[in-house]
Amino acid sequence: MCYIACIVGRILRRGLSFALAAALVGACAAPTLPLPPPAIPNISFSGLPKGQVQLSGGPGSVLANAEVIITNESTRLPAAERVEATLADGAGAWSKVIFANHGDFVDIVQLESTELSSPQTVQIP
Question: Which of 118, 120, 119 is nearest to 34 (CA)?
């Protein structure tokens, strides 16, 4: 009887091991959630020349150490002044002075590894 109990126990353990392995493989193959857009940033003009704006996000506004890419949609600016980038710190906070005027729309995305978030679009007041 003990022999049969041992055999049944081994079969059950093996079955559970295979089930666990299959679940782990399935979890790795499951699609990941999309990267969220950055939080709406703070906008400041204080102490900056006309045509420049400081955008900043507090801790958690993007993922820790993510690259933050800001694109001004205005075609009135030269192409070299329309795109800016910065790195968030370990808490997900960031800050960047960009070229922008009142009424311009800017798109802000975060890049983590090779994944790009959907944009957060804000209008410069």
Answer: 118
